[in-house]
Amino acid sequence: ISTFIVLLSVVLVFSTSLFLASRAIKPIKTSWEKQMAFIADASHELRTPLAVVNSNLEIVMENENETIESQMKWLNNIQSELERMKKLVDDLLFLARADAEDEMPKEYFDLSSLVHKIFDEFTPLCQKKDIEFLLDTKDNIIFYGNEFRIKQLITILLDNAIKYTGEEGKVELKLESHTSTVQLSVSDTGEGIPKEHIDKIFDRFYRVDKSRSRNHGGAGLGLAIAKCIVNEHKGNINVSSVVSEGTKFTVSLPYKAPQN
Ligand code: ADP
């Protein structure tokens, strides 16, 4: 009987440790799988522009007796694909740093002025697309954060709003301040996002319509980056959208007025 009890205890201890080990390994396995998927997606996104550069370069090299002027079409294609790749590599580096939990340096800056500046920068693009562009902001909001990244966040949201809104649509950038939060919102009257995609649009490389987004030039990293920036400022980002009516992204960030 005592041998049986010893044996039973050994089996029990062994199976419990096996169970605990598999539970401990699960998050590591999930994180590893996520990393592998990220690398696969990144490689795929980099391969596409590389293939375009390669094929255009081949044409240029085949026409070795042609003038540079006559080859401009192919050279322009190469240039725009290289720009796309540069943006992609910058975005990937940003996400890698965010994963490594590199803290963003922060200081007080005038958020109202920044919003005005961004509004001025986007006005010509909206005029070109015949989009009505509106700004609603309070002045003198001094915010503690990383100015460069907050600019990147607003730029991503505006870029998308303009990208997914057709001619004669409307885009609005709004900045409000409350006692302990500032609220930034970007709304548009564009194509909207179908309900079943809403939960996934902040995932890396996620695009609602892959073929269309590629024509627009996006790799599906913009909103993932936007979310990282919001998290780094301890805020939150929400989206509400109705197909064919429009989309509104709202960012809430904790706010503490500077003490003089
Ligand atoms: P992308 O580079 O493709 O724009 P994002 O991460 O910025 O990538 O956005 C992910 C997806 O969310 C987009 O492919 C698009 O389908 C959808 N999306 C984002 N913003 C809007 C918007 N304002 N209106 C409609 N769809 C949007």
Automatic annotation (TrEMBL):
Keywords: Kinase, Membrane, Phosphoprotein, Transferase, Transmembrane, Transmembrane helix, Two-component regulatory system. The keyword Transferase applies. GO terms for molecular function: phosphoprotein phosphatase activity; phosphorelay sensor kinase activity. One of its GO terms (biological process) is cellular response to phosphate starvation. Residues 41-257 form the Histidine kinase domain. GO terms for cellular component: plasma membrane. Its EC number is 2.7.13.3. It catalyses: ATP + protein L-histidine = ADP + protein N-phospho-L-histidine. It is found in: Membrane. The chain crosses the membrane at residues 1-21. This is histidine kinase. The chain holds residues 144 to 403 of 403 of the full protein.
